[in-house]
Specification:
There is one protein chain. The protein contains 9 helices and no strands. By secondary structure, it is mainly α. The radius of gyration is 27 Å and the shape is rod-shaped. The protein starts with a helix and ends with a helix.
Length: 222
């Protein structure tokens, strides 16, 4: 059994497959998306959207309380560890109107969704390219076999190439790229969901605090 598994690893064939798949994905998506796709592997392992959602909800309670006591201008005193939430709180504290905050939030969320989609597309491109390149390697191996029919010693390497490239293509596509793409898609949906929830809460706070009667009461307290 160990001997069989040892034959499944051919460094040159594997490197050629990985290089070809990388080039196809690069041509389809561009260098920026490829870099973000590789960077996304870290949050793939450590991201916890439930924890981020709960932290955002706790922060929103503090923001709401501070807005009621001091007004919107003081809400940026609430510190958060999440970069998006930090930017949103800063924008909320400095926005000229509720509409300007809502426009910023809609654009920010759309941009994030687009970046997430681009990363997801890279991994789907890899999943599509791997079997295709595996099939190309199989065809090359078969050509080598037919070209060396008069030399039995040359049939083995060509047959190995034909089978290994198909094997690598299936493994890379179905055991690496597709699971990564699915996991990143789930993380993106969960992250955008709690961020939209936070933005909606901030918009409601902004509308309440920007009401004329509410502004007047805050000035009287001040």
């Amino acid at each position: 059994m160990i001997a069989i598994f040892s034959h499944l690893f051919d460094p040159l064939t594997l490197l050629a497959m990985l290089g070809g798949i990388g080039l196809v994905a690069l041509f389809q998506n561009g260098a920026g998306a490829m870099a973000r796709a590789m960077t996304a592997l870290r949050p793939l392992l450590v991201a916890d959207t439930s924890r981020d959602r709960d932290a955002a909800r706790a922060a929103m309670l503090r923001i709401d309380q501070l807005a009621q006591l001091r007004g919107l201008a003081c809400t940026d005193r609430v510190k958060t560890a999440n970069p998006f939430l930090t930017d949103a709180v800063r924008k909320l504290a400095n926005c000229d109107s509720t509409e300007s905050f809502e426009l910023w939030a809609a654009q920010a969320l759309a941009d994030r969704a687009q970046r997430h989609g681009a990363v997801h597309k890279v991994w789907l491109s890899i999943a599509d390219a791997a079997p295709a390149l595996g099939l190309a390697g199989t065809i090359i191996g078969l050509i080598g076999m037919f070209a060396a029919m008069d030399d039995p010693a040359a049939l083995g390497p060509s047959m190995a190439l034909a089978l290994l490239t198909t094997f690598y293509g299936v493994v890379i596509a179905n055991m690496i790229a597709v699971p990564i793409a699915a996991r990143l898609s789930d993380l993106s949906d969960s992250e955008l969901a709690w961020q939209r929830e936070a933005v909606d809460r901030m918009s409601a706070i902004a509308r309440r605090e920007n009401a004329p009667l509410r502004r007047a009461s805050i000035r009287e307290v001040a």
